[in-house]
Write a structure and sequence with these properties.
- The protein is α+β, with helices and mostly antiparallel strands.
- The protein folds into two domains: 38-73 and 177-323, no CATH class; 85-166, no CATH class.
- It is 67% helix and 7% strand.
- It has helices at 8-16, 38-76, 91-104, 116-121, 124-127, 154-164, 174-216, 218-226, 231-270, 275-284, 291-323; strands at residues 78-83, 108-113, 140-146, 168-171.
- The protein has a four-stranded antiparallel beta sheet.
- Helix 2 runs antiparallel to helix 11.
- The radius of gyration is 36 Å and the shape is rod-shaped.
């Protein structure tokens, strides 16, 4: 027979016992995916690095395009007449005839006849200094500066030079302009391709991160799925989480890229006065992004965040279909 006698000590222990704390439940204020985790911080770091690289590539492509445009514009504004010396030739008289023909041609704003010493100095970057050019047939040149928006008739001018001055040639630098254009377009296309590859790598990183988050919260996702939670709700929670990570990482990478270009521009400005800095500026222009460059970096940040959100949503929906 069971002993049902009252135990005062047991009653006292029950009365003084602390009530068990309630277990937290998943509610509207509690996110489905933890806001801060090691995986989340790692993904933010990866997205920041990818955004920084994409912004650097896009900025470099824009700088190359602007420098190439400056080169082509500068080369297209000048035309060169060359006259080769020969024994018994009055080179100065032929130069005067060529200059008069060029000055009379429509579309020519200014002309300049290079002296013998100036023509020889043009060869110093290739042959070096201190050489005696007296025995070399160094061509004499006449530089024609063209009017903006008014292109001369090069065929007529070339024909007049050939008929008037023996051995004179007219170079409108068309070959160099075409080569510069091809080079610049190739570099821009390469920059766009690298940017697309970086965005694709970012998307793959988000796929793996989303799959990992789904695996870590699989029990919760399965319970929510089987009790009737819609796929839209679950996908929206994951999408909101990864959109925040994408925005955070994208902003960090974009700001770092802007700081890099600003620092590089300030550093290049300090070297402009030096001979090496002048040559670099002549070749690549100033390392300074315009409004278009900053807009491009902002667009890359937005695209990275958008890719992160869309890829995470697609990955979650595919995983939910597998669970279903």
């Amino acid at each position: 027979m069971t002993d049902t006698r009252f135990d005062p000590q047991a009653s006292s222990d029950w009365a003084t016992a602390e009530p068990e704390a309630p277990q937290p439940a998943l509610g509207g204020s509690q996110p489905l995916v933890p806001a801060a985790s090691i995986a989340g911080r790692a993904l933010v770091t990866v997205i920041a690095i990818m955004t920084f690289l994409a912004a650097l590539t896009a900025g470099a492509a824009q700088l190359v395009a602007e420098a190439s445009s400056g080169w082509r514009s500068s080369v297209a504004r000048e035309v060169t007449i060359q006259i080769r010396p020969s024994p018994g030739r009055d080179i100065e008289a032929d130069l005067a005839k060529a200059a008069a023909l060029a000055k009379a041609a429509p579309g020519v704003a200014d002309i300049r006849v290079y002296t013998k010493a100036e023509s020889e100095r043009l060869l110093e970057p290739w042959l070096g200094t201190g050489l005696n050019f007296d025995e070399l047939p160094v061509p004499r040149v006449v530089i024609l500066r063209l009017e903006a928006g008014n292109r001369p008739d090069f065929a007529a001018l070339r024909k007049a030079l050939t008929e008037t001055v023996r051995g004179a040639t007219l170079d409108d630098h068309r070959i160099w302009i075409d080569r510069l254009g091809v080079m610049a377009n190739t570099l821009v296309v390469l920059g766009i391709g690298v940017t697309i590859l970086v965005l694709a790598a970012t998307g793959l990183a988000v796929v793996f991160a989303t799959s990992g988050a789904m695996s870590g919260n699989r029990e919760i996702v399965e319970v929510l799925h089987f009790v009737g939670a819609s796929d839209d709700y679950i996908a929206r929670e994951f999408q909101r989480h990864f959109l925040q990570l994408g925005l955070k990482g994208g902003l960090i990478g974009g700001i770092c890229a802007i700081v890099f270009f600003l620092g590089a521009g300030a550093l290049s400005s300090s070297f402009v006065a030096t001979p090496g800095g002048s040559q670099i500026e002549a070749l690549f222009g100033t390392v300074a992004l315009g409004i278009g460059g900053f807009v491009a970096i902002g667009a890359i940040v937005a695209v990275v965040a958008g890719v992160t959100a869309v890829v995470s949503r697609v990955t979650v929906r595919r995983t939910l279909r597998e669970i279903g």
